[in-house]
Design a protein that fits this description.
With about 400 residues, the protein is an alpha/beta fold. About 25% of the residues lie in helices and about 25% in strands.
Length: about 400
């Protein structure tokens, strides 16, 4: 291992300073001459360069070898981790037209992002943060949805740390990223197997094992394949408080995405059954978003309400980020606001003694002001207090298509 670490350092000399610099979160190489870095969410081009395409490829071959893989004409892409834990993805020519193309996602040194910090960054309101804390304590199943780099993993880490310490947590990931500090955590990471992929373990394999290892809750770092069906099964079989992230642009799209991924399994369920399972498995979808100023915020916290008569998922926003403008420097101005609807499980919050007044779900009297108008005390059903004003970006079945295809 030491030998590889030393030679990787030598091969990566042109970008060594960025690998060391903790303010750099990503390093992107588009061929040997174009190296970009990301700092505080902003990309900038650097002067750094590799001597030649073959020097860059040699570095990538060395990294592949260090994790028992190959990168060559037969294996033209590589997913791996550097010795410091940073994730790397590589595509070589001819697919990569401008030369070997590389993205390195730096492994952040476990800077603990607490809910309080997210509130101070302006990523979430204090009330919504408190609400999420209660939802974790109540064992609600949650999906964190968002684009690449929107802050999904960071948020999942934050939520994971709120899990009561007496519970046994199993974490399954493709490449280990989550750093959930709790008393009883077991972490699994997929393995590539040998050169022929013999002995490889997928997320599905690991999830099946996880379910047999007496979990209280299971977290799947990123759901991007047929393991969606297993996570849904986990959520529906009494492992309340399970969580995962997925790539989608809105809460209802996240459910559609889970459905599409679940359909990839060898023995897919009939679509009507699948939809019913997904909508009962997932209680909340939390949408993460990267804004134009590089900030990451939670744009929606939505509850799922089942499937409508056309087979579309029904999502109802409980909290939503409302943008009010932009400063001259481009900073996004706005605030997270409640949407005037009570969660369906409000009685559960109250009966368990959590202090979260119903008023906190009331919409501001003047949109934009943070003072709450009178909440409808009896509005326990979403229909009774559904907000009438747009945008209702996440409600109801974007793109889930028609009902039963069968
Ligand atoms: N709320 C936030 N405020 C500011 N930066 C954030 C926030 N959440 C995440 N980040 C930063 O954004 C980058 C991407 O975050 P990450 O959680 O890995 O995104 P994803 O899992 O969606 O790809 C990281 O550098 C992380 O430190
Ligand atoms: Mg992530």
């Amino acid at each position: 291992m030491g030998v590889f670490e030393d030679s990787i350092d030598v091969f990566l000399t042109p970008i060594a300073e960025f690998l060391r610099d903790e303010t750099v979160s990503e390093i992107l190489m588009n061929g040997p001459d174009q190296i970009w870095i990301e700092r505080k969410g902003k990309l900038m081009r650097t002067e750094a360069r590799f001597n030649s395409e073959s020097a860059l490829q040699a570095a990538m071959r060395n990294i592949a070898q260090s994790v028992g893989r190959k990168i060559d004409a037969e294996n033209p892409t590589l997913d791996a981790r550097l010795p410091d834990g940073s994730r790397i993805h590589v595509v070589i020519p001819p697919a990569a037209r401008a030369g070997t193309t590389v993205a390195i996602r730096k492994f952040s040194k476990a800077e603990e992002v607490t809910l309080e910090k997210l509130v101070s960054f302006g990523s979430i309101s204090a009330d919504a943060a408190k609400f999420l804390q209660i939802c974790v304590a109540l064992g609600k199943n949650m999906i964190v949805s968002g684009g690449t780099g929107s802050g999904k993993t960071t948020l999942l880490n934050t939520l994971g740390r709120l899990i009561p310490s007496h519970e046994r947590l199993l974490i399954v990931e493709d490449a280990s990223e989550l750093q959930v500090k709790a008393d009883h955590v077991v972490c699994f990471e997929t393995t590539a197997g040998n050169f022929e992929r013999v002995g490889a373990l997928t997320i599905r394999d690991l999830l099946r094992s996880a379910m047999r290892l007496r979990p209280d809750r299971i977290i799947v770092g990123e759901v991007r394949g047929p393991e969606a069906v297993d996570l849904i099964a986990v959520m529906n079989t009494g492992h309340g408080g399970s969580m995962g992230t997925t790539h989608a642009n809105s809460p209802s799209d996240a459910l559609v995405r889970l459905e599409c991924l679940a359909m990839m399994s060898e023995t897919p369920l009939p679509v009507t059954a699948l939809r019913r399972q997904i909508s009962s498995a997932v209680h909340l979808v939390i949408q993460a978003k990267r804004y134009s100023d590089g900030s990451r915020k939670i744009s929606h916290i939505s509850q799922t309400l089942g499937v409508d008569e056309h087979g579309n998922y029904r999502c109802q926003d409980l909290f939503r980020f409302v943008q009010k403008g932009k400063t001259a420097e481009g900073k996004v101005l706005g605030a997270m606001e409640p949407c005037g609807v009570l969660p369906t499980f409000m009685p559960e919050i109250e009966v368990n003694g959590y202090v979260f007044p119903r008023m906190k779900f009331a919409r501001p009297a003047v949109p934009g002001a943070q003072t709450a108008a009178a909440a409808k005390p009896g509005a326990a059903t979403p229909a009774a207090a559904a907000p009438a004003t747009p945008p209702r970006s996440s409600s109801s079945g974007t793109g889930s298509g028609q009902g039963n295809a069968a």
